[in-house]
Design goal:
Helix content: 25-40%
Structural class: alpha+beta
CATH architecture of the largest domain: 2-Layer Sandwich
Distance between the termini: 24 Å
Shape: globular
Bound molecules: zinc ion
Strand content: 25-35%
Number of domains: 2
Length: 196
């Protein structure tokens, strides 16, 4: 179903049927929010921050949702770690490469402020791309992957975004490895006390 917001809001979505996968797309068809129940479970209700605009919400069971505006987007106050290094002050150039053999979807030359995006990046959903771009920007200040994840979530939440797509970006964007499972777990522990 479609809905329109005149201003940025914190919303509640309720379905009369159990939902396992739910996506919200904007007027251009981009997936800007995705929610997936864990371990074959399901849910009826979830909350999300949305900017002003027109949207479509759909799920695996029903496209009929009750949409309630709960209020303004809640404030986000996260204390970021102190910078670990000082490199270029901004990413000033983005280069799209055709190199599909790269391990990660994006890489950044932090001294020159150049970000390289490869075909793996463009295969990911929009929200995951936003998280990855913010993570790469984080490398201007941090060496640690986990600190860059915090930098990225902080940037996205301060812009009125949501936590679930950030988690999905890590779950879907990273290669399965013990280190990356640990990284995702640490990320979850760091954000669980912030916001909704
Ligand atoms: Zn990184």
């Amino acid at each position: 179903m479609n809905f329109t917001l005149q201003r940025a809001s914190h919303l509640c979505f309720e379905s009369s049927l159990p939902v396992a996968i739910c996506t919200i797309t904007d007027s251009t068809g981009k997936t800007i929010y995705a929610r997936r129940a864990k371990a074959n479970g399901h849910f009826y209700k979830f909350c999300a921050n949305m900017k002003a605009g027109s949207y479509r919400i759909s799920s695996n069971t029903s496209d009929n949702f009750k949409v309630t505006v709960l209020g303004d987007i809640p404030a986000w106050n996260m204390q970021l770690p102190a910078p670990q290094w000082v490199r270029a002050s901004a990413i000033t150039k983005t280069i799209v490469t055709g190199d599909s053999k790269r391990l990660s979807p994006a890489e950044t030359n932090v001294k020159l402020g150049i970000m390289y995006l490869n075909p793996k990046f463009f295969a990911l959903p929009f929200y995951a791309q936003e998280f990855i771009k913010a993570h790469e920007e984080g490398h201007l200040f941090y060496k640690s992957e986990e600190y860059c994840d915090l930098y990225a979530v902080n940037k996205i939440m301060k812009q009125g975004g949501n936590l679930s797509p950030c988690l999905l970006a890590l779950e879907n964007g990273l290669k399965r490895s013990p280190n990356n499972v640990q990284r995702t777990e640490n990320f979850f522990k760091s954000i669980v006390h912030h916001g909704k």
